[in-house]
């Protein structure tokens, strides 16, 4: 009897050790993936907010100034609060998705993919949505209404990618602005986590025959197209903050003016955020789990 207990205890101990190594791998995969995409997303998000607040310069020129500054002053860029906010958002999102899936698979008796996927999706949403809204509120507080001083860059005045206001000077954000960001995130999450797995199945084998390639293609393309619907809501939220007393006709005119370039920029932004980032996180997680013996 005692002999049968010992192997059982050893088996449980091995499973526990494997689970801990897998969870450590989940954290490493999430951190590396977030670190790889946070710089470009930080630059894009700030450029979009500043462009909505003041369209004196084109969206591309504003983004260019931030990218140039990140190379000229890397220490300041990576130690600044905007980068930390964006990194926190994606590191927390990927970590939640990884850890939830690992734990559910480890403790569920039946390997039900629908159950695992549903729990992982809900947990990820519970973390991603409030952090996403928090990130956008912090950005619109810091960079809305052209609040920052503008240094000279190649003979033109552009918002500084380094200077940031103190927390004490940040104005309050109306609830309606937060609500628009929530709606935008709901559209983005639907297009990034739910629809790709559904829409990859109908892709004809004559176009893509490998299921893995189908899934990767859907994970890249579907989230991008979701921004066609999410971007107008995003611009509306920014305009409600920057021009709270504006008339509807005036507001719609500004939204139409910014819609084209902002949609293109947010579509491009999705590629690292929910395309490359998700694929990198998935592959790194698989590698670390394999190394852990899972």
From TrEMBL:
Origin: domain of life: Eukaryota
InterPro entries the UniProt entry points to: C365.16-ike
GO CC, alphabetical: mitochondrion
Name assigned to this protein: Sequence orphan
């Amino acid at each position: 009897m005692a002999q049968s207990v010992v192997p059982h205890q050893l088996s449980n101990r091995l499973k526990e050790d494997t689970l801990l190594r897998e969870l450590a791998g989940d954290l490493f995969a999430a951190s590396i993936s977030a670190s790889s995409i946070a710089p470009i997303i930080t630059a894009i998000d700030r450029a979009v907010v500043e462009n909505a607040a003041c369209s004196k310069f084109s969206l591309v020129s504003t983004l260019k100034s931030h990218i140039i500054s990140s190379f000229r002053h890397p220490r300041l860029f990576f130690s600044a609060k905007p980068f930390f906010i964006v990194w926190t958002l994606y590191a927390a999102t990927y970590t939640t998705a990884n850890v939830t899936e690992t734990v559910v698979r480890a403790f569920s008796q039946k390997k039900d993919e629908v159950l695992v996927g549903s729990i992982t999706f809900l947990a990820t949403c519970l973390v991603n949505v409030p952090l996403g809204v928090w990130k956008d509120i912090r950005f619109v507080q810091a960079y809305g209404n052209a609040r920052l001083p503008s240094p000279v860059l190649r003979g033109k005045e552009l918002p500084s990618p380094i200077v940031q206001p103190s927390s004490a000077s940040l104005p309050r954000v109306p609830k309606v602005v937060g609500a628009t960001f929530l709606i935008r995130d709901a559209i983005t999450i639907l297009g990034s986590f739910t629809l790709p797995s559904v829409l990859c199945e109908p892709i004809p084998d004559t176009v893509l025959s490998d299921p893995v390639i189908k899934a990767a293609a859907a994970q890249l393309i579907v989230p991008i197209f979701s921004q066609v619907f999410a971007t107008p809501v995003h611009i509306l939220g920014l305009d409600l903050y920057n021009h709270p007393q504006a008339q509807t006709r005036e507001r719609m005119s500004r939204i139409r003016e910014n819609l084209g370039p902002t949609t293109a920029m947010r579509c491009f932004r999705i590629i690292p955020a929910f395309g490359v980032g998700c694929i990198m996180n998935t592959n790194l997680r698989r590698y670390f789990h394999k190394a852990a013996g899972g």
